[in-house]
Design goal:
Layout: H1 8-13, H2 15-24, H3 29-38, H4 40-61, E1 64-68, E2 72-78, E3 82-90, H5 100-109, E4 115-123, H6 128-137, E5 141-143, H7 146-156
Antiparallel strand pairs: 1-2, 1-5, 2-3, 3-4
Helix pairs in contact: 3-4, 4-6
C-alpha cells in the first residue's frame, strides 16, 4: 500500500465509486460479501487498492495546502516538480493561531514586526504525490489557496 487506507467514513462517502471499482474487477455485491467472509485478506487488498487509487487522484489534483499550529501558519503551493511555501511565525508566544482570536490577531498584525514571514521553494526529492501525502500526514490539509494567493500578491506588490 502506497498511502493509507481510507476511513470508514470516507468509504461510506465514496460508496458509489467503490461499487464501480469492484464492478471493474467483476465483483458484484454477492461476490463481495462472499470475499469478506471467505477470503478477508483478499477483501482487505481490494480496500487498500481502492484507497491508493483515490489518494493518487486527490494528490495529483492537489495544488494548495495549509497547516496551522500554535505559532506558525504554513501555506504551500504545489507544482509538478517543486513546492513553494509561505511560513508565518508569531513573534508573540501567547498568540495561538489555532483559535479564532489568534487568527484575528494574525489578520490585524500580518505586516508588522510581530509576524516573521519566510518564503521558500523546494524541489521534490521524491515522487510529488508522496511528498504531498507526507505533508498531509504531518497535519496539512488541502485548501482552495485563497490565503496563499492573497499573501503572495501582497508580498509581490
Amino acid at each position: 500500500m502506497k498511502y493509507t487506507r481510507l476511513t470508514k467514513e470516507q468509504f461510506e462517502e465514496l460508496h458509489p465509486e467503490f461499487i464501480n471499482f469492484l464492478a471493474t474487477q467483476a465483483i458484484d455485491k454477492a461476490e463481495w460479501d462472499k470475499l469478506k467472509t471467505e477470503k478477508p485478506e483478499v477483501a482487505e487488498q481490494e480496500l487498500d487498492v481502492f484507497s491508493d487509487l483515490i489518494w493518487e487522484g486527490v494528490l495529483t489534483r492537489a495544488e494548495f495546502l495549509e497547516h496551522f499550529s500554535k505559532n506558525h501558519v504554513f501555506l504551500f503551493q504545489c507544482f509538478d516538480t517543486y513546492i513553494e511555501s509561505i511560513v508565518l511565525k508569531s513573534m508573540v508566544p501567547e498568540v495561538d493561531f489555532l483559535t479564532k482570536e489568534g487568527l484575528q490577531w494574525l489578520s490585524d498584525n500580518m505586516f508588522t514586526d510581530t509576524i516573521e514571514m519566510k518564503v521558500g521553494r523546494k524541489e521534490f526529492t521524491e515522487d510529488r504525490n508522496t511528498s504531498i501525502f507526507e505533508l498531509i500526514q504531518q497535519g496539512s490539509f488541502l485548501s482552495d489557496g485563497q490565503l496563499y494567493q492573497q499573501i503572495k500578491t501582497i508580498i509581490e506588490s
